[in-house]
Amino acid sequence: MDIQILRQAAGWGTPAYVFDLDAFALRIRHMKEILGQDIKIIYAMKANPFFTRTAAQEADGLEVCSPGEYAICQRAGVPPEKIVLSGVNKEAAHIREVVGGVGSCGAAVGNPGPAAGSPGPDTYTAESLSQLALLESCAAQAQGSPLRVLLRLTSGNQFGMDEETILSVIQRRNAYPHLHFTGLQYYSGTQKKQSGKIHKELERLDALLARIRDELQHEIRELEYGPGFHIPYFEGESPVDEDAMLANFRAALDAMAFKGSISLEAGRFLAAPCGSYVTRVVDTKQNQGQDYCIVDGGINHVNYYGQAMAMKIPAIRHLPQSISQGMPADHIPGENTQWTVCGSLCTSGDMLVKNLPLSGLRTGDMLVFDRIGAYAVTEGIYLFLSRGLPAVLTYERETGLKLVRGALPTSPINDGSIQYFEDYIKKENS
């Protein structure tokens, strides 16, 4: 993201996330150009819900895994035919609401849900026999068309069902007259560096689809697959030729005997390169020969997959201030100083980077963490020390920067006084 845009974003205060909606839209379009328009792109919105509106415009669908995510989609006006309602915990009250189109659909405190009678999602996943029973019961009560269901195949963890259970369900499909088993869903994890693992997974899925067709005389028409493409985050990692990787993946899809509809579930791969985090240096010091800088953010905001105790250096930029701001530094380092970057939390674990080589770092300068568009905005330990939530800004060339969420205090959430929290909510909604 352009430095001037980031400097302008910092004018709203730091720390702050900046998400590039144009870059996100272009990644979806480019994926479709390489893979072909017949491959559907499904955005896993858990990666970053702030891309929801753009995903609804550019992607073929959104993977939604909670009542809260569903409420975000409703407020964003995401068409029901673009929603795949997934999740390992499908809450009965929520499923009854969305299947029947009668409720608030899990709206968050202070936010309106969808209007009563609004249609529910186009497609549901089933992760267990109990979820199938729930979907069947709700569909029967709604007395509408059969629900489109994707049966999730496990990869050997708590998600989905094993092959034998899925085969048994399809064999007993007449027991679910209000469900239409249209497809399979499979996702085994993220950050896969070797294409061979993806090829083996596609071969396994191809064999299972053929078995369902030949042994059970049931044609599976859809496959939703999450390949977990690799995103390089840290210094020293080999760059990824994304075009070649996608072309190789398309060749693997073409080699399958299955010729039904294929959807590619992607979250991290789409969102990660499209966000930056801006934080300001508030102090510098030297302890026992080690140079430290303290920033106004911390590990409660910065989270990279595979980062362990700041032992790796992520994509990071130094934005010096023309005039130093704040208190003067009590330590003036030399050139090319090896900095340990720490956040504002009162824990020795709040280290963002060790031995970061920077020249001329001063209090008031800013550090920009790039490739942070996926997960960091939701996975941080935000309530620790009752520090505030960072501001969130989005950027589009046509409209420029837009503040979509100002910095928010977390102390009302951590306060033991129920009345204080209720008064705070009323004030915010007034």
Automatic annotation (TrEMBL):
Keyword Iron-sulfur listed: no
InterPro entries: Ala_racemase/Decarboxylase_C (IPR009006), De-COase2_N (IPR022644), PLP-binding_barrel (IPR029066)
CC cofactor: pyridoxal 5'-phosphate
Domain Orn/DAP/Arg decarboxylase 2 N-terminal: 26-272
EC number: 5.1.1.1
Top-level class of the enzyme under EC nomenclature: isomerase
Alphabetical UniProt keywords: Isomerase, Pyridoxal phosphate
Domain of life (superkingdom): Bacteria
Keyword Transmembrane: no
Any GO MF annotation of the entry: alanine racemase activity
SUPFAM superfamilies recorded: Alanine racemase C-terminal domain-like, PLP-binding barrel
Protein known as: Alanine racemase
Species the sequence originates in: Enterocloster hominis
